[in-house]
């Protein structure tokens, strides 16, 4: 016989909100946003076809039916917690750190550096998921969320750790075939675009006082990491964020043919739920990110001109 089970994440949000009498406190306990708790409760109400809370200005009150429901399910959560602790799973969970970060940042900056974190803190297991969803739209809870900023989100502590600017980059081989001495020389090149960032090249060309420049060709990709890989492979010139191409500039896989102009860009920041900000694993990871990120204001490696 099939079990009649409601959505478990929604049930967890309802239990916390009902026990604490507050969506805000439930969000802090579960390390999610106030909006996520509200969405989960609304989902459970739709599933049960019954209202669970009376919503007032600064508080929520359980309906009589919801009080009875909570009285029956609350002991089950406690039993589940005790059973998990008895079987030793809590030890593994306690030392795991869940991180959510954008895919291009993860691929090009975070992953190449994670071995250093593992070497320094072998006792902390890091689980990384990639996403570009806004902080307040994430449905799951994470110990550390990495996004652009600085932004302010209710219930979250924000700290910047990596700043960047954007400027043209290309492969040394391409630069040797088609030298770039001034921005006007881009007329002979293929400009690489990313569909989600359509203003990068127009804004840079305007800053370089060549707004009407027509390149030899353009090529557009749907992911930024593909655009950067195309630049490394010598297909064209990309607008490179200094933070994400710093390793390529340092090793010579890419070069920056112009000193400027540089387009300003948002910094990378960590967002941590207020109730989780003092967790030892979170403190270690945030501090490590800041040590890795703050000194990395990489100067572009320029191709020397030959006379």
From TrEMBL:
One of its GO terms (biological process) is DNA-templated transcription. GO terms for molecular function: DNA-binding transcription factor activity; sequence-specific DNA binding. PROSITE patterns: HTH_LYSR. It holds the Pfam family HTH_1. Residues 6-63 form the HTH lysR-type domain. Keywords: DNA-binding, Transcription, Transcription regulation. The keyword Transmembrane helix does not apply. Belongs to the LysR transcriptional regulatory family. This is Transcriptional regulator, LysR family. It comes from Paraburkholderia phenazinium.
């Amino acid at each position: 016989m099939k079990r009649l089970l409601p959505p478990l994440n929604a049930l967890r949000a309802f239990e916390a909100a009902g026990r604490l009498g507050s969506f805000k406190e439930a969000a802090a306990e579960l390390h999610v946003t106030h909006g996520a708790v509200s969405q989960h409760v609304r989902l459970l109400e739709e599933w049960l076809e019954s209202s669970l809370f009376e919503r007032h200005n600064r508080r929520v009150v359980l309906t009589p039916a919801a009080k009875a429901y909570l009285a029956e399910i609350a002991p089950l959560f406690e039993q589940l917690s005790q059973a998990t602790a008895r079987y030793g799973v809590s030890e593994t969970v306690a030392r795991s750190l869940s991180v959510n970060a954008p895919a291009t940042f993860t691929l090009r900056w975070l992953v190449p550096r994670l071995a250093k974190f593992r070497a320094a803190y072998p006792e902390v297991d890091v689980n990384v998921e990639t996403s570009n969803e806004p902080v307040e739209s994430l449905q799951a809870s994470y110990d550390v969320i990495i996004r652009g900023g600085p932004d302010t989100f209710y219930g979250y502590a924000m700290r910047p750790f990596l700043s960047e600017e954007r400027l043209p980059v290309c492969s040394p081989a391409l630069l040797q075939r088609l030298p770039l001495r001034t921005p006007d020389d881009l007329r002979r090149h293929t400009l690489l675009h990313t569909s989600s960032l359509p203003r990068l090249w127009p804004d840079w060309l305007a800053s370089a006082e060549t707004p009407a420049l027509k390149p030899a060709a353009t090529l557009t990709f749907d992911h930024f990491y593909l655009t950067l890989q195309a630049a490394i492979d010598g297909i064209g010139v990309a607008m490179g964020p200094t933070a994400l191409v710093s390793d390529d500039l340092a090793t010579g896989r890419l070069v920056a043919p112009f000193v400027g102009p540089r387009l300003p860009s948002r910094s990378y920041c960590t967002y941590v739920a207020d109730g989780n900000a003092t967790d030892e694993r979170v403190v270690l990871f945030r501090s490590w990110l800041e040590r890795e990120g703050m000194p990395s204001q990489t100067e572009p490696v320029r191709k020397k001109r030959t006379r």
